[in-house]
Structures are given as C-alpha cells and as structure tokens.
Known about the structure:
This protein is mainly α. The chain has 20 helices and no strands. It is globular, with a radius of gyration of 21 Å. The two termini are about 35 Å apart.
Amino acid sequence: MIKTLAENPVARGNWVTSARVQMFATLSLIGTIGAVAYLFLTAHGTVDSFGRPLGTDFSNVWTAGRMALERRAPLAWDWPTHFAAQQLAHHKANIPFYGWHYPPPFLLIAALLALVPYIPALIVWQASTLALALLTVRKILPSPGTTLAALGAPVVLVCLGHGHNGFLTAALLGGGLLLLDRRPFVAGLLLGCIVYKPQFGLVLPVVLLLGGHWRAICGALLSAGLLCALTLALWGWPVWAAFIHSLPLTQSVIIEQGATGWEKIQSAFSAARNWGAGISLAWGIQTVVTVAAIIGTMAVSRGTRPFVRNAMVIAAALLSTPYLLDYDLVPLGMAIAFLVVDGRERGFLPYEKTMLAFVWIVPLFGRALMSLTTVPLGFLSIAAIFLIALRRSRSIT
C-alpha cells in the first residue's frame, strides 16, 4: 500500500532530527580532523605521503605569490615556468602540477600568503577563511548546532584537502547576500570581491539590477574596481595580458578536455562530456542550464523573501558556470542555512528536509560515485537547492 505524504518519512523529513544531524556532523568532523592530521603527520616537508603538495591546489597559490614577490608576476600564467617554481618550492621534480587560472586580483592574496613559508601560509589561509565562513553561516542561522553542522559538513574536508578558496567564496557570497537588504553598500563591497572568481558573478548583476539595489551596485563596482586598479598599480598591464592570453588554454585543456577529471568538475558541461557528449553539444547543454539559472534569478529578484532569494542566487551562481570544482560547493552550505531559516519560520514543504540533508552529505561520496557511475551528484545537489528555492518562492507567501 502506497503511503501518503503525511505518512512518508522521506517526504516529511521527520527523520532529519537535531540529534541525528549532530551525530553525523560529529562523526564527519572526527573524520576530517583525522584525515588532515594524517596528511600532515605523514608528510615529508611540504609533500604528503601520496607525493602531492600538502593542500594540493594551494601549491599554485603560494608559488604564484612567490613569483609576484620576485617581480615575475606575469609568468604565473605561463605553465612551464610556474611548474618549475612549484618543483623548486617542494624540492621535488615529479611533483604534480597545479595550474594558475585566476584573474590578477587573487594574486594579491597569493602574494600576501607567500610572505611566510609554505606550511604556515597554508594553515593561516585555511584557518582564516574557514573562520570567516563559520562567522557568516552563524549570522545566517544563529542556532546552537550551527557551528558543529557547518564544521562537520563533508565539503569542509574537500576544501581543506585542496587548500582552496571555497571558504572565502562562501563567506563573500553568503555575507553579501545576507546584508543586501540591511546594509546594501557593505553587501556590494563583499560581492564585488568575487571578481577574483568571476565565473560565479554572472547572475549577481541580474539580482542587483532587477532588485533595484543601487547602493549595492555602487559598492560592488567600488571593491571590484579597487582590486583591479591595485593589480595594475603593483604589476601593470602585463599581468592582465598574461591572464587573458591564458584563457583559451584553460578553456581547452581544463574545461573542454577535463584534464582534472570529469568527476572533479561539478557543472552541467562536465556531466555532459562525461556522458560522451561532444564539445559543441556540451556547450549547448551548459547554455540551457545557464539561461535557466538566470531566469530563476530574475524570478526571485523582486517580491521574494530575502532568504529564499539568497539560496536561489547561490545555486544559480554555481549552475551558471561550466568551471566548477568540488571544493566550490562550499557556498551551498550558506544556501542550506538560508533555507533552514525560512523553513523554520514558515514550515517545510514535502521532501525539503530530506533533500537538504542530501545536499549536505553529497560531497562525502559525490566525486567517487560520479567516477564509478557517471551520476553527477554534485551538479544534482546544486539543482536541488535551485528547485527548492524556486518552489518555496511560488508555494509559500
């Protein structure tokens, strides 16, 4: 006999209790601490026991920063030269190469981190940005269990393992959207800083313009402009020329050919390529998803409750880019927090609690499962947040 929605625990989500969330978060956090401790305790200098740099992708950040300090900033986008710098930094010829694909504003952070040795820089970088992300999510959802649920989220281990900027991106997106209606200029300053990761900024002008957030627009233009101007003042036009010159190679090797592995990239484009689609078809599929993300953002830009809008914007920002790695899923934690607040205030719709729990845990096994089955759970988790937010914007007033 088919259970009604009222009787179906998956639909009701009554199995997602505070006690279970805390239990799973505690177990996950213990695993995260253990994994990070193992990597550091078994490392030889800056190289872990698997022969990779500690923090893997942080290798390109620190070495790019060193090159900037050595007045070789434009060469950070030259792959052979940058690889030689990474080999020198880790005293290992066969170290894996991690390419530098960022626009010049991120080189400002890289140069600051490169002022100190590699391992202290990695620790400072991850600890400080994780703290910013925790502060932001606690402002969104000021509940007793928020800190544990956030620290224990499996995506934290993913980001720590890569030594990456997912925490910073999450803090900027989450903080900017949280402040958008109360302190719009400050919100704009935060959102403008995402110029260092421009692939996530496609939908932001849409929500700001259609929502009439003019002060936020001014703040975003100011912070983005100042960051770009500072790079020009420090290193001149050559760094921008080098970045622009590197884009076709990044598009071809990293995005279109999937040099990092399709399972690592969490976009619609990557999913299509992993299923055997040609480059043109994959771009067509990504275009459809991007347009849908923009339309969804337009639909919630005015007259939608702020927290539902914010979750939608975060999901749309991630859906709209073909270049989205597994550590870039950290902002979904902010989206979950926004939706939990709205759900507690107005009630959860069927299946929402279960889907939010699914999104929280997917980074634990999503990449491995995609490698084994080609099922893009990371992409599906973003789409789930998008659809939950869209549904709430239409079903609950």
